[in-house]
């Protein structure tokens, strides 16, 4: 009986947690996805960001996103719009070599569709549902993926200001007499990444100025959305691809000191080195394996499962991963960048954040973490689109939505323990009362008998 009641309570909690309180409006609100490259999660705590705080105080905040390995710009931007780990979408690094086609990829030479065709970004897959879409300088924007591009797109051009980018995006979202506005738009901005590399994230003076400019741009975005009447009508999701960590000339790993460059072809360098051995792979690996205490060497089959970075032809036979803040160079003592990213995706310094606001989101709600691959299924739900196969889940992201009711796990555990204690107390009381009745009598008759008892002082 006790167990049945408990299961009933748990069943009610479960049913309530999965119940959809209200249906999505039809058609769903438009969605604007914005990335500020290299926005490390703790910048939010370190620097005043009044406009960003205003946005998520009226919406939701995810304090930290666990992004995908390697924590570089292109792999992570493609994961945000596909929900896939890098090994599954095929954009694995800033520099790649494809052993099947013998092609080379670099972020400034990225427009061969072959590199991108292992996945479909949201601005392409949404076209299948009859939506118009836009991609403003997001990595892959101008590439013909699956023989298509977004309805509107712009190739990356650092000369175009944030204001100009926002102006185009809002124009595309509004549409005109001939064309409906786009349902989904992705917008990219290269700060605070660019300055983080130059100054290093620990430079408070420089970074506070950079983050002020980023926040001013968020203010400009909000203002533009208000002016055009889109504010409050569309869903806005602001996020980033990765964080940033401080590097130092005292933390250099020189590959040439371990292995002569004639022994291998170098595909990518730091902080994750990709190497193709040219002779005796085992001997090459052994030399690299003992090269430096702050660098781990892996043969491709031994790359840890948790990195989801093994099952792709474009991952080379040997990879080297530097510890946080260490820089791999070929030779010399020159530090290329004061700040860098690309390191292990379990490091908090590599994590970005996510904030969102709009009619579909809860108001003033925060959670501590989410996987960055969860953002794709969340966006599909916001747009009422069927998601492509992906590595994400709605388990936690669902709680960000106004139409969903979620119970905090500690609250549910507390409730269950409370009910259990109450039922236990009732059972003990019941057994105690039962133990006081004469053998063979029924409990409620016993009360009746007690009323007639001559010993009852009321009858004396
Ligand atoms: Zn980046």
How much helix is in the residues? 25-40%
Can you count the beta strands? 18
* Biggest sheet architecture: 8 strands, mixed
Globally, the shape reads globular
Structural class: alpha/beta
User: What is the assembly state of the chains in this entry?
Assistant: single chain
List of distinct ligands in this structure: zinc ion
* CATH topology category name of the largest domain: Alkaline Phosphatase, subunit A
CATH architecture call of the largest domain: 3-Layer(aba) Sandwich
Mean pLDDT: 91
- Runs with pLDDT <50, length 5+? 1-20, 443-460
Radius of gyration: 29 Å
The CATH class of the largest domain, by name, is: Alpha Beta
- Please indicate the count of domains: 2
Distance between the termini: 42 Å
CATH homology superfamily name of the largest domain: Alkaline Phosphatase, subunit A
Number of helices: 13
GO molecular function: bis(5'-adenosyl)-triphosphatase activity; metal ion binding
Signal peptide: 1-17
Main location: membrane
Organism: Champsocephalus esox
Quick take:
The protein is α/β, with parallel strands linked by helices and 460 residues long.
Structure description:
Residues 1-17 form the signal peptide. By secondary structure, this protein is an alpha/beta fold. It has two domains: 24-84 and 119-244 and 345-400, Alkaline Phosphatase, subunit A; 252-340, Gyrase A, domain 2. It has 13 helices and 18 strands. Strand 3 (95-98) and strand 4 form a beta hairpin. Helix 3 crosses helix 9 (204-227). The chain is globular, with a radius of gyration of 29 Å. Residues 1-20 and 443-460 have low confidence and may be disordered. Bound molecules: zinc ion. The site of zinc ion (ZN) has 6 residues, from loops.
